[in-house]
Amino acid sequence: MFNAELIERAARFRSADEDPTRRLESCPALVLNADYTPLSYYPLSLWPWQTAIKAVFLERVDIVASYERAVHSPSLDMKIPSVIALRQFVKPSEFPAFTRFNLFLRDRFACQYCGSEKHLTFDHVVPRRLGGKTTWENITTACAPCNMKKGGRTPRQAGMRLQYEPIRPTSWQLQQHGKAFPPNYLHETWRDWLYWDIELEA
């Protein structure tokens, strides 16, 4: 399902060769859980360099990899962590919060009627005037034109077909969907910890 070439195209990995001259704001740390899997894929679990260093000194995380960029103080020279792992496992909640962002992620940021990725909003499958509730199972992602076309009718009444019936997703399902939307910034030291379920190419 996940193609390494597409991921490379979507998010170019930044080379460690650039590290010594890298701006500090461009040195976030990828945060792994205690089992060495990312805390989150979308948004990707990243901490600013200051937060990462503070967590190291508070002994809350272990450094897995570092940038070549370093920070200096009168008593310390330290490379900035690029990958850190929590020492205590954080158990993810089974079900995500019911938010607009998570709804769009469940539906892969596409209208569930026509597939458009523009002007997204949400639609009550069974309209509220017909007793429809604002729940995972009755809300779907729709582009503004499809939402206007459907109006206060059910999809059947409007002659429109849903690509997928809305469901209440698990956190695991949203994480899987999130892997298809890599961020713009990916450092090469993160490679071993992201997209490990891509089939290896011979």
Strand order of the largest sheet: 3-2-5-4
Q: Based on Cα principal axes, name the global outline.
A: elongated
Mean pLDDT: 88
Compute the number of helices: 6
Strand content: 15-25%
Taking pLDDT < 50 over at least 5 consecutive residues as the criterion, the unreliable ranges are 196-202
Order of helices and strands: HEEEHEEHEEHHHE
Q: Gyration radius, to the nearest Å?
A: 21 Å
Total count of strands: 8
Secondary structural class: alpha/beta
**First and last CA, distance:** 17 Å
Describe the 3D structure.
This protein is an alpha/beta fold and 202 residues long. It is 21% helix and 22% strand. It contains 6 helices and 8 strands. It has helices at residues 4-10, 49-57, 100-106, 144-150, 155-158, 171-178; strands spanning 13-14, 29-32, 46-47, 61-73, 76-86, 120-124, 139-143, 186-187. The strands form 3 sheets. Strands 3-2-5-4 form a 4-stranded mixed β-sheet. A two-stranded parallel ribbon has the order 1-8. Strands 6-7 form a two-stranded antiparallel sheet. A hairpin with a 2-residue loop joins strand 4 and strand 5 (76-86). The longest helix is centred in the first third of the chain and has 9 residues, at 49-57. The protein is elongated.
